[in-house]
Write a structure and sequence with these properties.
The protein folds into two domains: 150 residues, NAD(P)-binding Rossmann-like Domain (Rossmann fold, 3-Layer(aba) Sandwich); 196 residues, Dihydrodipicolinate Reductase, domain 2, CATH 3.30.360.10. Helices cover 34% and strands 21% of the residues. It is globular and about 60 Å long. It starts with a helix and ends with a helix. The structure holds NADPH dihydro-nicotinamide-adenine-dinucleotide phosphate. NADPH dihydro-nicotinamide-adenine-dinucleotide phosphate (NDP) binds next to α2 and α7.
């Protein structure tokens, strides 16, 4: 994330705790989480987010840098035995304090650590994108089934009030018949930043800006329209003289066609000013969220709906809410909203986009009969 996005994130965190809706306060049965990979997201959002949780609690840290992890553990009053390295990771099986493993590693490590955690008998919350290949995503789902454990993908917008408000407006037909969803998710990238270096490597990221940021637009079009695309066409615009884009594409633009006749155009790039914006146009109304998917500071403007131009939407700590949701799923207090199958659907769609790019914009069929099991608009309180 760029500085602007991080700043907005902190803003969101500052507004967080009091605003969290309660589904019933956990009483002494907090669900212990192990956070795997102490990089930018873990240090900036996830570990601090536990302070705003009511069901999830930090129980362990897994890192390749023991000194950092030990310091962080001490700060959070965790005993020294709650710090693990990658080599002794499988020892978590014998640690009853850990019920959920939160995978916050570079994308190419998601599948390996998810499957190891499931084999150790733990539930898994895995960051997006779920994996770097469709095959890995399928193996992760199979491993969760075999272990009889929950696998949730960290789609924080499924739990975020602005996006939930927009989904509910769409479901209520407030815009008339949905015609078009436009999404643009991108930012500048910096090859000298280790956190960006792996994102600019095709093998480690699975697809550069597309798998890092474009995925928000793909998932967003799907949850806003509440249907699945049947066809995609895509193009890339990449300057191979730029050292950042030796293995991944830079800008990708795609068009999805949905069964209702709605269209969605999406763009993503790692060489543009930072944005996470989406717009929806219906036959009688429109909505514009800019930003629509930041950690905080999101803003929604409605057109064609009198008296509701800029609805007041209470901000929450999105990471705390998502971790609490996972904890409540584990305790049987909440339904699974973003299961592995949701992650797999995006993996397959991103794969179809890259296939279309490789085939010069050819139409790729994506009608494989996926249907989300639970609609966030009905399952998650505002
Ligand atoms: P970083 O590169 O900042 O952190 C990843 C961490 O993983 C490293 O700091 C390191 O932690 C650990 N790691 C273990 N093996 C490796 C390796 N071979 N190379 C690099 N790092 C390694 O990434 P982010 O924190 O930005 O992103 C992590 C995940 O979170 C990604 O999947 C990303 O897509 C997702 N993400 C999701 C966001 C959201 O809003 N939901 C926002 C940002 C990211 P250690 O030193 O402790 O071992």
């Amino acid at each position: 994330m760029n500085d602007d996005i991080s700043r907005r994130g902190l803003l969101g965190l500052g507004l967080a705790a009091a605003a969290l809706p309660t589904l019933g306060r956990a009483q002494g049965d907090g669900v212990g989480f192990a956070v795997v990979g102490l990089g930018k997201l873990s240090l900036g959002q996830i570990v601090p987010g536990f302070a705003h949780c009511r069901s999830a609690r930090l129980a362990a840290l897994v890192s390749g840098h023991a000194e950092n992890a030990n310091r962080l553990a001490a700060e959070h009053k965790l005993p020294a035995r709650s710090v693990y390295g990658y080599e002794d990771f499988d020892r978590i099986a014998a640690d009853p304090r850990i019920e959920v493993v939160y995978i916050v590693l570079p994308n190419f490590l998601h599948a390996e650590y998810t499957i190891r955690a499931l084999k150790a008998g733990k539930h898994v919350l895995c960051e997006k994108p779920m994996a770097t290949s469709v095959g890995d995503a399928e193996r992760m789902i199979a491993a969760a089934k075999a272990a009889n454990r929950k696998l949730m993908i960290a789609y924080r917008c499924h739990y975020e009030p602005l996006n939930l408000y927009a989904m509910r407006k769409m479901r209520a037909g407030a815009l008339g018949r949905p015609r078009l969803v436009v999404t643009n998710m991108g930012r500048q990238s910096d090859l000298s930043d280790p956190s960006d270096a792996w994102r600019l490597d095709l093998v480690k990221s699975g697809g550069g800006a597309l798998t890092d940021m474009g995925i928000y637009g793909i998932n967003g079009a799907r949850y806003l329209l509440n249907e699945e695309p049947v066809e995609v066409r895509a193009w890339a615009q990449t300057d191979r003289r730029d050292p950042r884009f030796q293995t991944v594409e830079d800008m990708i633009a795609w068009e999805f066609r949905f069964p209702s006749g709605a269209l969605s155009t999406g763009t993503t790039s790692f060489d543009q000013a930072g944005t996470m914006a989406w717009e929806v146009y219906g036959t009688s109304g429109k909505m514009n969220a800019d930003p629509g998917c930041f950690y905080g500071g999101n803003r929604l403007v409605l057109g064609g709906m009198p008296g509701e131009r800029e609805p007041k939407i209470v901000e929450i700590d999105q990471f705390a809410r998502e971790m609490d949701w996972m904890a409540d799923v584990v305790r049987g207090r909440a339904p699974m909203v973003s299961p592995g199958e949701e992650g797999l659907q995006d993996m397959r769609l991103m794969h179809a986009i890259l296939e279309s790019v490789a085939r010069g914009g050819a139409t790729v069929r994506t009608a494989w009969n996926y249907r989300r099991a639970v609609d966030p608009a009905t399952a998650v309180p505002a």
